[in-house]
Amino acid sequence: MKISFDKISATPKSFNLALNDVVFSGALSKIDFNTVKLNGELKGDMEVCCDRCGIVFKTAIEQPLNLELSQKIGQNKDNLDIIEFLNGTIDLEYILQSEIDSIRSSYYYCQKCDGIEEFEVEI
Length: 123
Ligand SMILES: [Zn+2]
Prior knowledge:
It is built from two helices and seven strands. The chain is of the alpha+beta class. The strands form two sheets. Strands 2-3-4-5-6 form a five-stranded mixed β-sheet. A hairpin with a 2-residue loop joins strand 3 and strand 4 (35-49). The protein is elongated and about 55 Å long. Zinc ion is lined by residues 50, 52-53, 55, 109-110, 112-113.
């Protein structure tokens, strides 16, 4: 799902897309000529890998995603929540895919391993 910067105004424009079992929904609105604000959330089930035993299992995710999208290079270099789309087109699939990749790269324990850890703490 690609949206041109030119088509977004100050009035929030809603969007909704899905990748596998994860739904990405929210709204886009323009802050200034080169900047668009994204207020959204990711919700659904995602396959992750247990960091202890390596088993693949599904986990429910639900997290807000608030970003600024810019079509101008080098704006707010200190702001990590800014994504540049220099061709003037916002690619929502790209945003969703990179968020899923970053969620997947954190640590997960399956139900079984989660229990083991608690047990060790009690001892
Ligand atoms: Zn495990």
